[in-house]
Amino acid sequence: MPQSDEEQYQPHELRVIEERDQLRKRWGDLRVFLGSRVYAMLSVAERDRLLIQFDVMRTYLQILELRIAAFTEGKEMR
After folding, report:
1. What is the DSSP string of 4-68?
2. Which of 6, 47, 48, 54 has the fewest beta carbons under 10 Å from its own?
């Protein structure tokens, strides 16, 4: 019988997964906002800041994915 996530992962690993899931949603919401009329009406400077935020969030999401992959691979080797 497969283990549940709670049994398979350490508490700190579960927090990383939860953080990734939350960030993925916020990043997706921002991506939608970047295509909105409201975004188009913002100043160029504010649009630039939001694009920077979008890129940084994407990088952070990639880092969390790498961390999750690393501790997931470790579990498969056991």
Report:
1. PHHHHS-HHHHHHHHHHHHHHHHHHHHHHHHTSHHHHHS-HHHHHHHHHHHHHHHHHHHHHHHHH
2. 6
